[in-house]
Amino acid sequence: MSILFQQARLLNPVDGIDAIGSIRVSEEGIIEKLSIGSNPLTPEAGERIIEMEGRILSPGLFDMHCHFREPGQEYKETLESGAAAAAAGGFTGVALMPNTRPVIDSPLGVAFIRHHAGGLPVDLEVIGAMTVESRGEGLAPFGKYASYGVTAVSDDGSAIQNSQIMRLAFEYASNFNLLVIQHCEDRSLTAGGVVNEGMYSTQLGLKGIPDISEAMMLARDLLLLRWLEEHKLHDPLQRPRYHAAHISTEASLNLIRQAKKDGLLVTCEVTPHHFTLCDEDMFNAEEKGNYIMKPPLSSARNREALLEALRDGTVDAIATDHAPHASHEKQCPPQEAAFGIIGLETSVGLTISQLVERNIISMQRAIELLSVNPRKIMNLQPISFKEGSVANFTLIDPLIEWKVTADKLHSKSINTPFIGKTLKGKAIGIYHKGRLQET
């Protein structure tokens, strides 16, 4: 049966739409009728009516940085449980990082993910490893990736330390228009580190991670990009595209600002936990395991720099770095805890609570960061609200207040510091693949 989304706040930056309106979707999942204005569409016999009452209907959200752990660590998360968490969080698509066991460093791994993704409620895009087994030594088969529809490569969690390998990765990726995603970390500075280096790491007696380690690696990469543009590249259609993952420091943001001014094809993302928390929150927490992540929660000054970068447009995307871990990997001494937290189900709430409600960004900018820009960066098809287009929506109630509780999470893991926190704003459903899934 057809579905009528009646009197929603239609919010789609792709089409320049931010207005009250109604959309009718056919049984096949195609937008049949779009009406802008206060006059609702007349319901047809037998169709389902969803009274939106001014709540937001946006293009389906997309998270470009997730870990679903399958294959190899299904005790933490599976493709099925990760997709359930994504749908519950309002995401109709996610991009999966390749650091599974085994690493997704060949078309065989890509095919495995896609084979098991068909019946899931969300799209799973696969990011291929940049080097074989993500060891940073020999490049993975970028050309074969491209033939399988892969649009990005990364050794996430294991930044390429060798500058020659990174140079070759840029050159090889540019031949196939693949996005290079870097986890920026100079491991010679971070080895053995657990939390942000500073007063709190000293008081806790934990080895610190200096925040300059992120900018050091980013600066190396940007220097390589500039050099390649000036000396080695002759085809403007083969310029390397670079994306800095989960940026967390003011120094990194300043480098990215300058790179953009210089015309380099550079983008970056930030996570909700980095723009919400700082190392003082970790210090004051009773159980510290769920505050252990890479990059670590940084200083309050760096958090303020992230907020300013979100406000001024330096940041291109919000991504969760959804990283599930079993309880025993977090409920342990902090120096033994696994790095990372889950984030798909709290992303919308944190974005609205911490950014929109505090007038740091508008709701339209939030949708750009959570949906439009990630798809554009990943070179994926944009979502349009036009008659004849495929329907791909997220339904959002920006006013609802809700508490994060472990029993309501859909992920297989519950490693988040936001348990017990009250957030404002929540995804209340998605429409994708011809199906409405309400949360």
UniProtKB/TrEMBL annotation:
<dbReference type="InterPro" id="IPR011059">
    <property type="entry name" value="Metal-dep_hydrolase_composite"/>
</dbReference>
<keyword id="KW-0665">Pyrimidine biosynthesis</keyword>
<comment type="function">
    <text>Catalyzes the reversible cyclization of carbamoyl aspartate to dihydroorotate.</text>
</comment>
<comment type="similarity">
    <text>Belongs to the metallo-dependent hydrolases superfamily. DHOase family. Class I DHOase subfamily.</text>
</comment>
<comment type="pathway">
    <text>Pyrimidine metabolism; UMP biosynthesis via de novo pathway; (S)-dihydroorotate from bicarbonate: step 3/3.</text>
</comment>
<feature type="binding site">
    <location>
        <begin position="67"/>
        <end position="69"/>
    </location>
    <ligand>
        <name>substrate</name>
    </ligand>
</feature>
<feature type="binding site">
    <location>
        <position position="156"/>
    </location>
    <ligand>
        <name>Zn(2+) 2</name>
    </ligand>
</feature>
<dbReference type="InterPro" id="IPR004722">
    <property type="entry name" value="DHOase"/>
</dbReference>
<feature type="binding site">
    <location>
        <position position="67"/>
    </location>
    <ligand>
        <name>Zn(2+) 1</name>
    </ligand>
</feature>
<keyword id="KW-0862">Zinc</keyword>
<feature type="binding site">
    <location>
        <position position="183"/>
    </location>
    <ligand>
        <name>Zn(2+) 2</name>
    </ligand>
</feature>
<feature type="binding site">
    <location>
        <position position="156"/>
    </location>
    <ligand>
        <name>Zn(2+) 1</name>
    </ligand>
</feature>
<dbReference type="Pfam" id="PF12890">
    <property type="entry name" value="DHOase"/>
</dbReference>
<protein>
    <recommendedName>
        <fullName>Dihydroorotase</fullName>
        <ecNumber>3.5.2.3</ecNumber>
    </recommendedName>
</protein>
<feature type="binding site">
    <location>
        <position position="325"/>
    </location>
    <ligand>
        <name>substrate</name>
    </ligand>
</feature>
<feature type="binding site">
    <location>
        <position position="65"/>
    </location>
    <ligand>
        <name>Zn(2+) 1</name>
    </ligand>
</feature>
<keyword id="KW-0378">Hydrolase</keyword>
<feature type="binding site">
    <location>
        <begin position="339"/>
        <end position="340"/>
    </location>
    <ligand>
        <name>substrate</name>
    </ligand>
</feature>
<keyword id="KW-0479">Metal-binding</keyword>
<dbReference type="InterPro" id="IPR024403">
    <property type="entry name" value="DHOase_cat"/>
</dbReference>
<dbReference type="InterPro" id="IPR050138">
    <property type="entry name" value="DHOase/Allantoinase_Hydrolase"/>
</dbReference>
<dbReference type="GO" id="GO:0004151">
    <property type="term" value="F:dihydroorotase activity"/>
</dbReference>
<feature type="binding site">
    <location>
        <position position="99"/>
    </location>
    <ligand>
        <name>substrate</name>
    </ligand>
</feature>
<feature type="binding site">
    <location>
        <position position="321"/>
    </location>
    <ligand>
        <name>Zn(2+) 1</name>
    </ligand>
</feature>
<dbReference type="InterPro" id="IPR002195">
    <property type="entry name" value="Dihydroorotase_CS"/>
</dbReference>
<feature type="binding site">
    <location>
        <position position="246"/>
    </location>
    <ligand>
        <name>Zn(2+) 2</name>
    </ligand>
</feature>
<feature type="active site">
    <location>
        <position position="321"/>
    </location>
</feature>
<feature type="domain" description="Dihydroorotase catalytic">
    <location>
        <begin position="54"/>
        <end position="224"/>
    </location>
</feature>
<dbReference type="InterPro" id="IPR032466">
    <property type="entry name" value="Metal_Hydrolase"/>
</dbReference>
